[in-house]
Amino acid sequence: MTVNQILSTKGKDVYSILSTNTVYEALTVMSEKNIGAILIIEDGILKGVLSERDYARKIVLKAKSSKKALVHEIMEADVVTVKPSDNLDYCMELMSTKRVRHLPVLENDTVIGIISISDVVKAIIEIQKDTIQHLNSYITQ
């Protein structure tokens, strides 16, 4: 299964903010959209990603104010991305080795979606269910 297949099931909604927004504004959007990370896109270019983990570690634990801190101060600028044609094994390996939970999907340097660790795990579980069902039908024939 590929990233594109996950996006075709999940949808290609992408929520983004600017690096000059406050962290509080970013968290508000994340809460409204029920997402764990938000992309920072400026002039159509992916500049970074901000996750709940970034907030917890770089604002809360350092006793900073989310209403005063700007997104660019805590966002991850070195973003790990994937292509629509990448497979799930590659995504799992990236997420594991790079310790990220969200992968923006780029096509020709344009963000066309984002997948999370739960999207990948859900897809792998579906593949395993299909394999088990196929093996069961093979055995019972």
Descriptive report:
By secondary structure, the protein is of the alpha+beta class. Helix content is 47%, strand content 20%. It is built from 6 helices and 5 strands, in the order H-E-H-E-E-H-H-H-E-E-H. It has helices at residues 3-10, 23-33, 52-60, 71-74, 88-98, 117-139, and strands at residues 16-17, 37-42, 45-51, 102-107, 110-116. The strands form 2 sheets. Strands 1-2-3 form a 3-stranded mixed sheet. Helix 5 crosses helix 6. The radius of gyration is 18 Å and the shape is elongated. The model has no long low-confidence stretch (mean pLDDT 94).
Give the key terms:
141 residues; 5 strands
Q: Summary?
A:
With 141 residues, the protein is α+β, with helices and mostly antiparallel strands.
Helices and strands, in order, run as: HEHEEHHHEEH
Mean pLDDT: 94
Strand content: 15-25%
Task: Determine the N-to-C terminus distance.
Answer: 27 Å
Number of helices: 6
- Beta strands, count: 5
- What's the gyration radius in Å? 18 Å
Poorly predicted segments: none
Multimeric state: single chain
Strand order of the largest sheet: 1-2-3
Topology, please?
Layout: H1 3-10, E1 16-17, H2 23-33, E2 37-42, E3 45-51, H3 52-60, H4 71-74, H5 88-98, E4 102-107, E5 110-116, H6 117-139
Parallel strand pairs: 1-2
Antiparallel strand pairs: 2-3, 4-5
Helix pairs in contact: 5-6
